[in-house]
Amino acid sequence: MRLKNGEIVTIKTTQVNDAQALLDFFNASLYESDSLTTAPGELNLTLEMEERLVQGWIDNKNCNNLICLHEGEIIGICGLHGKDNRKRLGHITNLGITVSKSYWGLGVGYLLIQEQINYAKRVGLKKLDLEVRTDNLGAVHLYKKCGFEIEGTHKMAALIDGEYKDNYFMGLIIDL
Ligand SMILES: CC(C)(COP(=O)(O)OP(=O)(O)OC[C@H]1O[C@@H](n2cnc3c(N)ncnc32)[C@H](O)[C@@H]1OP(=O)(O)O)[C@@H](O)C(=O)NCCC(=O)NCCS
């Protein structure tokens, strides 16, 4: 796969032996923006806990965690995490994404989300949903470009540097 700058990247499903690199990447990404729910320093996962999480994702068809690699390094992650496998809720999964700041705007996010939409279609998921800060203009643009629609506003969803911020609820209905 090729980015907008011509660089080649690969996307693969996270395996248990990626757990340490995944932890390191996610931890570093917390310092690169204030758009994620977890604040810098709040990630208290041990390697063993992360390995169990990754195995859990592999075992659950409503979950799928992808990593994007450039020259062997993780530069982006995108996860589908089904909240609930009960009959009435098992058609929905939640999408989360973060890309290394030095790669923003090159199409990594778009490639990752397209892969997740393909995965959702393959396994019969019907809806992807997410929350995104209303002031995260790049992310809102990316989600709309991938077909997500704004479904509502979650007021006072986050407290950032003493200021309450709203989120959009966004959703993508997978073609039946
Ligand atoms: C949001 C994020 C995942 C996007 O990843 P990315 O690899 O930069 O995404 P892409 O390059 O595929 O697409 C970004 C798009 O937003 C556009 N964009 C960037 N800043 C923008 C802005 N301020 N206003 C409007 N559009 C903007 C880019 O031009 C690009 O659109 P285009 O391809 O039509 O030109 C990345 O910025 C990130 O990790 N941010 C921090 C974590 C985060 O916010 N995660 C999402 C939480 S809901």
Characterise the protein shown here.
This protein has 176 residues and is α+β, with helices and mostly antiparallel strands. The chain has a domain at 10-125: Aminopeptidase (3-Layer(aba) Sandwich), CATH 3.40.630. The chain has helices spanning 19-29, 47-59, 108-123, 137-145, and strands at 10-13, 63-70, 73-81, 92-99, 127-133, 149-160, 163-173. The protein has a 7-stranded mixed β-sheet with strand order 1-2-3-4-5-7-6, with helices on both faces. The longest helix is centred in the middle third of the chain and has 16 residues, at 108-123. The model has no long low-confidence stretch (mean pLDDT 96).
List the main descriptive attributes of the protein structure presented here.
Aminopeptidase, binds coenzyme A, alpha+beta, 4 helices, about 180 residues, seven-stranded mixed beta sheet
Quick recap of the structure?
The chain is 28% helix and 34% strand. With 176 residues, the chain is α+β, with helices and mostly antiparallel strands. A 7-stranded mixed sheet has the order 1-2-3-4-5-7-6, sandwiched between helices.
Beta-strand content? 25-35%
Total number of β-strand segments?
A: 7
Q: Helix coverage percent of residues?
A: 25-40%
CATH topology-level fold name of the domain at 10-125:
Aminopeptidase
Overall shape: it is globular
What's the structural blueprint in terms of helices and strands?
Blueprint: E1 10-13, H1 19-29, H2 47-59, E2 63-70, E3 73-81, E4 92-99, H3 108-123, E5 127-133, H4 137-145, E6 149-160, E7 163-173
Parallel strand pairs: 4-5
Antiparallel strand pairs: 1-2, 2-3, 3-4, 5-7, 6-7
